[in-house]
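Below sits my pick:
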Amino acid sequence: MKQPFAIVEASFIAGVAAAGQIPPPALAEIAFAGRSNVGKSSLLNALLGRRNLVRTGSTPGTTRQLNLFHVRATDGLELVLVDLPGYGFAKRAKQEKSRWGPLIEGYISTRVTLRAVVLLVDVRRGAEQEERDLIDYIAKTKARAARPEVSLIVVATKADKIPRAQRKPAIMRISADFGCPVLGFSAETGEGKEALWETLRRSVAVASPKEA
C-alpha cells in the first residue's frame, strides 16, 4: 500500500528570473533555500522520487532562478515546490547575484500562497551567517496579515557523510544554534525523507490557498 506522501506526479512549471514572470498564485507553495553546495537539488529529486527532474551540477550555483515544480501525492494533495537560487559559494558575477537577492526576498515576503521555507544546512558545516540572515528575514515576514504564517523548516543535509554516531550530536548543535528543531536528511540513503514530508504536509495544512 502506498504511503500518502508517495508522489505520483511531479513536473516542471516554470523558471523565473524576474518577479513579473512568477505564475499567478494558486496552490500552496513550499520554498527551498540553502547554500549553493548544500545538496538542494539532490534533496528535491529524492523527495519527488525522480532522478533528474531538478537539475543538479558539479559546479556550485547551478540554480540561477526560481524554479517551480507541480507535485501531486497519492492521496490527491497538490502543491508547488520552489527551488530558490543557491547562495554562498556560487561562482557567479556580482551583478547576476545582485538580482537574486531582491527576487528571493520579494518572493518570500509577498507570495500569498507561500506556506513554508525549508532552509538546508550541511550537517558538517552547521549554521553560518548567511543562514542566520535568511532566518531573520523570514521572521520579519511573519507579521503579514495577507496570508497564514510562513513556517521555517531547517534540514541538515548530507547526513550520510558523517558516521552514524555523530549525526544526532551534529543535528542537536545546529538545532541549539538556530533555536528550533532540525531534521536530518540524506538524499543518498533516503534517511529523513518520510519525516520531512510529514513536516511539509503539516505546514500546508495550516490553511488552504483559497483562504489566503
Notes: The first helix runs from residue 40 to 48. Strands lie at 7-16, 29-34, 66-73, 78-83, 114-122, 151-157, 182-184.
